[in-house]
Amino acid sequence: MSTPNAPVTDEKSAPRSNPFRSFNFSTRFWVSLVIVVAVVVLGLAGFLYPTGSGEKVGSLYDAPGGGLPLGTDNFGHDVLAVLMAGTRTSLIIGLVAGTIATAIGVAVGLVAGFVGGWLEEVLMGITNVVLAIPSIIVLILISISLPQSSIWSLAVVIGITAWPWTARAVRAQASSVATREHIDVARLSGARLPSILLVDVLPYILSYAVMAFVLQVSGAILAESALSMLGLGPSGTDSLGTQLHWALAFQAVATGAWWAFLPPTIVLTLVSFGFLLLQASLDEVFNPRLRRGKKKQMKQAAARRAKEAAALAAGEQAPAAGADPRPVPTSAGGAA
Amino acid sequence: MNLGRYILQKTGWYLVALVAAVGLNFLLPRLVPGNPVDVIVSNLTRGGSITGEQQQQIYETYVAEFGLDKPLWEQFFTYLGKVFTGDLGTSFANYPASVNDLVGQALPWSVAVQLPAILIGWVLGNLVGAIAAFRGGNWDRSVFTSSLFLSSMPYYCLSILLLYVLAVVAGVFPVGGAYSLGLTPELSAEFLWDAVSYYWLPFLSLVIVFIGGQAVGMRSMAIYELGGDYVNYARAMGIRDNTITKYIFRNAMLPQITGLALSIGTLVGGALITELVFNYPGVGTLLFNAISQNDYPVIQAITLIITVAVLLANFAVEIVYGFVDPRIRAAKSGEK
């Protein structure tokens, strides 16, 4: 190596400067993104669909056909219209509850992990106690105590019962960040605790918080549908859960009215699968150890490293960004 | 920390969780605005199925049972006393029937479905996950994706699909219920044979999802262990693959024991709605009927029993974990 102390600015013009290469999105990621986007589009399509979800357009379980692509449900409503409205409601509940749960979880975990001491003991004690009690039970108890449930109250209730596992995971990460040196630097330069937490600790946890949020959203959607199926859903609103609730109550499965129960079942499955897959593929992006079986990419990466080494050894500047970033295998230079 | 302290600490935490759960169970239904008895009785009479005399009886029983005229802390101790002597109260909806009888009839069905599902699902799921991690390649990819799909699928969605495809369309299994009409539950060969044919669908829908969830967890744990330094070292020492596999399996197994503790709660919650889909006469169906009839004593009894069962199961798993993993005992604090 002729230039062991190459100037830092050289990194910018290195062949790796293509920002998307470092993300390394897998097929899995794109599949999950397509699923999630498709569900969101289904929810938004309700605004354009001519029939309202409360309009009576037929009788009990009319089979699909004649202008009704998915037939009617037990009330004689258009199943497709109800499905669109229900998907929208479920997504709203999922987003609101997921935001609340992630916010509480990250806040509790961050403070507990970073501050430590008795505060950590207390916060983690509460977290572990809440975690041990099955959340569906707490949800049922709170729901029967509420005089009337709207989608907003339901979302808040789901949000404030779902945070503990996020808090536990964030705490572990925050306490490892707390021992790093840049925290000492921040302290010495006089930063206050809130600023250290937000500026110096949170960014390290952000990738995890995003993944937790994705899981919280799908968890909240499923919790809502579970509650609705037990008869504790939002009153007077269509959601995926209430749609299933009525389909079961009116014996849609036993009578073979598949159009009444299959659509919400499939959408719910897609929601939970899509979000989980999204989380798993984000995990692979953030945690390279989980990536496997990509021999082609590994070969490319090795070739790229070899070329970098060669370029460094020759002491010449690598081609500027915008040039063809694909690596040209060279025999010169050792393996990086 | 030695094993004794570990057990003591765990016992302490689970006692706190138990008290919190019982407290929630006691407090939440009392948060109904206004006098809960008025709300309940007016809800009951709105249905029109209850005569004035019954209404008065219910009113008096409820006030006497919970001592609503006394201060809250005294009510709590009355409630605790009753619960610990095994008296769960009297049902509103099926008035003279005691809650103990109602729950006693439903509980065996739920236990019969859930306990084998947990045990078999856990063993099979771990095997599948470990094999997927060792084999790698396409086998891994297909197993991982299908496990992820199955585990992300809500229990009730799979139940509905299985019920429709296997029972309604294919006619392999009976549609809903737990035994044929005309039979009464008894310990005879004829009845058991009949009940088994109804048993398969709820059992399958629980166990399949559970296998998926465990397999996903085991796979990522095993992959994580495969990259461990001790694996590289063992390879360098020329230790045979089979022996290394054994090391990895034992190490990856440990977090799966904690995973079992966490997933029991989810499974029990999911099983509630699975029973509902199959109209299986277990606790889930009882809970559903109780919610639709505002039968607070039954709801409270079921939520209490489920909470206690899940806490006990988690506690047992954690104690087993303490015995199996020496590192837990050696660690400074096992709680976090």
From TrEMBL, chain B:
Mode of membrane association:
Multi-pass membrane protein
Among SUPFAM superfamilies, the record links this protein to: MetI-like
- Cited PROSITE patterns: ABC_TM1
Entry keyword set = Membrane, Transmembrane, Transmembrane helix, Transport
Entry's transmembrane regions: 12-32, 111-134, 155-179, 199-217, 257-278, 298-324
Specify whether Membrane is a keyword of the entry: yes
Which residue ranges does the record assign to the ABC transmembrane type-1 domain? 107-317
The record's subcellular location field reads: Cell membrane; Membrane
Q: What domain of life?
A: Bacteria
What protein family is recorded?
A: Belongs to the binding-protein-dependent transport system permease family.
Protein name, UniProt field: ABC transporter permease
Q: What's the source species for this entry? A: Brachybacterium rhamnosum
Lineage of the organism: Bacteria, Bacillati, Actinomycetota, Actinomycetes, Micrococcales
